[in-house]
Amino acid sequence: MTIYQNLIAGEWIGADATKNINPSDTNEVVGLYADGSAEDTKNAIAAAKAAFPAWSRSGIWERHVILKKAGDEIMARKDELGALLAREEGKTLPEAIGETIRASQIFEFFAGEVLRLAGETIPSVRPNIGVEITRDPLGVIGIITPWNFPIAIPAWKIAPALCYGNTIVFKPAELVPACSWAIVDILHRAGLPKGVLNLVMGKGSVVGQAMLDSPDVAGITFTGSTGTGKRVAAASLEHNRKFQLEMGGKNPMVVLDDADLNVAVEAAANSGFFSTGQRCTASSRLIVTEGIHDKFVAALTAKLETLIVDNAMKSGTHIGPVVDERQLKTDTDYIEIGKKEGAKLAFGGELLKRDTPGFYLQPTLFTEATNQMRISREEIFGPVVSVIRVKDYEEALATANDTPFGLSSGIATTSLKHATHFKRNAEAGMVMVNLPTAGVDFHVPFGGRKGSSYGPREQGKYAAEFYTSVKTSYTLA
Fold first, then answer.
1. Is residue 444 part of a domain?
2. Which end of the chain is more exposed for a tag (fewer CB within 10 A), N or C?
3. C-alpha–C-alpha distance, residues 315 and 445, integer Å
4. Same domain, 145 and 270
């Protein structure tokens, strides 16, 4: 099989390869992808540093054209790239194509944003002096992405980094190199100068650590686990570098007595179980007031019975496999923890066999859970959801906010009063009313509070806060 190589200084560089396995059919090898070394990473950083002076001063039309070409090619190949995503990550084909379309939209947005770069000219308080406020690119950006959105998250980090004139060393998650390689190949062929975008696939302990250790990396944007995020922060402080962290979530969805039952069930099922629950914005805590609790649980259970768990590429599949064996074990371990803690297993929790060998798990619903249980406080990152019964809205809000995380929060209600109060008082970076907690448009800020996020928001015009540094200049007239 072809070995898909790393891109360093504009050249495809060979390395030892690792197999990329399809979680829907573990007999299938999606491809062989390079396993980069610390030396590869150092070379990539050096190439990005050398390319920065010219790229940071490049014309905005040059950047626009490259970003636009990338967005157009991704959209033209959405079915092909969506299938690649479904095969390597296990997301259903419709979800995977939707994610690919979103990646295209992100590049289109920043292709426009680069033409809207602006600053301010203001008068000084002193006479005959002018003040200009502008934004400069940071320098070499280290990008570390997770496995659950293997094309969208790389897009929403790479596109603004390039838009604002930075150069890049990019390390995707080991489990999902294929989509990342495809994006880099598209940008490389779109005309990026050598060294502007470098791809080093490999282990986090090797490639990621080399990035953290380098004083030449001016900023690191990271999406992944809370533990790794803390290590990124500690290493970045040593080098006085800018860092941006998107980490875990234990997102609540409140369901009030006055909720439209169908709306609440659809939002909860989508939030908790679609994409196999492998979303940092997934609702894994359903906080339900006692008046609607039993009807809601019955209706949600009936909904779960209709969901088909199968090969991600198969037509009609609602939920694909868990991404790999290690994540599957984490999910099943938490199911056993939930039982031992005293929660009631109301639905699912069984390993499934399908026509092809894969990591198939029934969507799992616990009831009679409390907010103090581990299954209600720790991020599982799988199709495992807890229902917590509460008395009223006040208790529901307090329970929703009682978490070390603060990424996304939702409420199902027909009360304008409660919806308005919840939006103002939910301790989360994103709030959804009568909608799934997962699903944020590409042009709006993405991020959370508390243990979920650190640093400026991602996406939209807010991305400039991380990828640039503000400069104030004075001129005597």
1. no
2. C
3. 33
4. no
Q: Which residues contact 398 (CB under 8 A, 6 or more apart)?
A: none
Contacts of 436 (CB under 8 A, 6+ apart): 267, 270, 271, 274, 283, 410
The whole-number pLDDT of residue 473 equals 98
Torsional class of 201: left (φ above 0), alpha (ψ -120 to 50), beta (otherwise)? beta
Q: What is the phi/psi pair of residue 416, to 5°?
A: -65, -35
The catalytic site residues sit at: 246, 280
Over the stretch 102-148, which tens digit does the pLDDT of each residue have?
999 999 999 999 999 999 999 999 999 999 999 999 999 999 999 99
Residues 63 and 187 in one domain: yes
State whether 313 and 396 are in the same domain.
yes
Residues 6+ apart with CB under 8 A from 101: 75, 78
Predicted pLDDT of residue 350 = 98
State how far the Cα of 436 lies from the Cα of 129, in Å rounded to an integer.
52
Q: Give the Cβ contact number of residue 465 at 10 Å.
A: 17
Could you tell me if 381 and 410 lie in one domain? yes
The neighbouring-strand residues paired with 369 are 388
Q: Are residues 242 and 256 in the same domain?
A: no
Beta bridge partners of 352: 360
- How far apart CA 27 and CA 93 sit, in angstroms, is 19
Query: Is the domain of 171 the same as that of 232?
Result: yes
| Residue 5 and residue 15 in contact, taking contact as beta carbons nearer than 8 Å | yes
Return the CATH number at 381: 3.40.309.10
